[in-house]
């Protein structure tokens, strides 16, 4: 996210943010300790994972599968819990 | 010099007049003793069409301040007022307009805190608000209640200030007492408080985000910016008071003195009891004691420089607190000691507590403080522990 290097003199009065919607640049993916992995073969493309994701970071790809954006995915596991086909498994993040 | 007319007004009505003449756009307040008459008078003015403002009948002080924050963020000139428990309920929201740099103006009719339940005056509620980063000042009489509320708008809305501002008037002593005072011409007040424009307002055509989330990587920078900006309001406050003085003929400064010429001892007070202290100083002067009075007009930001200047020639400073910082003593006294530490090692500072929960402070008690403080200095010099005395409190113990 932008802003990490800002000094106090760089801030707008009252810490007003003048760039609308810049929260989208805030990375929440690094909060994750587990990542969701989907088995495409058994997925029925119902979209329930997309509906339940509290981070709203799941999107439908060109083939109709639902993919998590790992820049935002916090690894909460709700998608895995809600998937009616149990095709999502939560896999521990490893040091890269 | 201003014309104006002399009227007899209750302190609460004097405040309401100031808000009316400032042409406030939004008033959100919840009535609580002893501030109630301010809210009642303002709602009457709005209902009668004497003030073209939106009066929001909120269900609590927490909501009152929340509504003020929203209205101020939209660029409105706003007003609220409270007292005692009401200020405590408002407390959570009080930090928001100051951190967001919104020029909300408020009046506090100072009241003791429960328990036991007390609607009467002391400064316990004020002391709980020390760190909210609002500019705070004390009025001693109804004229000052009017003048300082008027100035509060100019100060808060100044582009170099943009901090919420609170005027303290002692509950009942000012809020419910009718005094004669000069009510200036409306046009003159309107000229003194022109319309203002905040650099950032809620505007769909120019969207901004206010009151954002501040993760650890930026939060300390926001607080540093706030602290520096708050410190830097001092010269502007004086400048605006000077301008007020030129137009209206009444002059204010952060630290005001009374009979300080040649004084070796001074009493220090805030608020309405300063006028009683003046009478005590008169009597002590007549008795040949070199005593004067220092009145702290500006409470936040703390006027370090002016205070050091005021105590320059003193041997003894006698500080009155109308609140207790439990386990610490008198809060004003501790702050003064900290403000003067390393600056005046030879100056003795002795604190007293009086006037809790509306107990009157008499002239004789101020005189007692001056005499007793000199005895306490001797005890301090003998290396004895001197505790903060609560004036006039009954010992009992004979049951
Ligand atoms: S793990 Fe949580 S945040 Fe990540 S995609 Fe699944 S529901 Fe969304
Ligand atoms: S909830 Fe399961 S089955 Fe449904 S789209 Fe998501 S991954 Fe596929």
TrEMBL record, chain A:
Gene from which this protein is expressed: porD
InterPro entries: 4Fe4S_Fe-S-bd (IPR017896), 4Fe4S_Fe_S_CS (IPR017900), PorD_KorD (IPR011898)
Assigned keywords, A-Z: 4Fe-4S, Electron transport, Iron, Iron-sulfur, Metal-binding, Pyruvate, Repeat, Transport
Entry keyword annotation includes Repeat: yes
The protein's name in its UniProt record: Pyruvate synthase subunit PorD
Subunit structure: Heterotetramer of one alpha, one beta, one delta and one gamma chain.
Listed Pfam families: Fer4_21
Listed GO MF terms: 4 iron, 4 sulfur cluster binding; metal ion binding; oxidoreductase activity, acting on the aldehyde or oxo group of donors, iron-sulfur protein as acceptor
Domain of life: Archaea
Keyword Ubl conjugation part of the UniProt annotation: no
Domain 4Fe-4S ferredoxin-type: 34-63, 64-93
Cofactor: [4Fe-4S] cluster
